[in-house]
Amino acid sequence: CIALAMAAAVPVAAQSDEETSARLDALFGAHQPHEAFLARLKDAVAAGDRRSVAAMIAYPLETQVRGKPLTLAAPEDVVQSYNELFTPPVVAAIGRQSYATLFATAEGVMVGDGEVWFSGICEDETCADVTVRIIALNPPLAPGAPDATDPGTDR
After folding, report:
1. First-residue to last-residue Cα distance in the chain
2. Strand ranges, E, within the chain
3. What is the pLDDT along the chain (155 residues), one digit of tens a residue?
């Protein structure tokens, strides 16, 4: 019984589009914004469209590049540091990510093994207007190096 209770408390990745939609509906009230965001992110990253990707980020965003803290204050910062942020492993993780296999918690939605997290950001005081944006970027510290992938981790 304890194992059952513990399993219920742990978020589980869905296995189908319908299960993912139901999970996102339960967590965020609607799945469509997150589904559309993933498609736009995948398209922009595949095209190497730095400006479109930069427009998808919630600013300011704290991350690390090569083990050093980096604050992304504006889209220009992302454009300038794009290759350090969207490294080949990050680009590959985004490209491989399917909607059906998204992992989601109340914190947000995870791409890959936590290379990117996104969630709805309130655009007004009542939170009636929500825009999905990237809330965490976790490029690998170095090839093969372990890295933190939790959106609550100061990376």
Report:
1. 36
2. 61-65, 68-72, 103-105, 108-111, 116-122, 130-137
3. 344 333 344 455 557 999 999 999 999 999 999 999 999 999 999 999 999 999 999 999 999 998 899 999 999 999 999 999 999 999 999 999 999 999 999 999 999 999 999 999 988 888 888 899 999 999 987 655 544 444 544 43
Report phi then psi at 20, rounded to 5.
-65, -45
Q: Which of 111, 109, 112, 110 is nearest to 120 (CA)?
A: 109
What is the spatial distance between Cα 123 and Cα 128, in angstroms, rounded to a whole number?
A: 8
Q: What is the pTM of this model?
A: 0.82
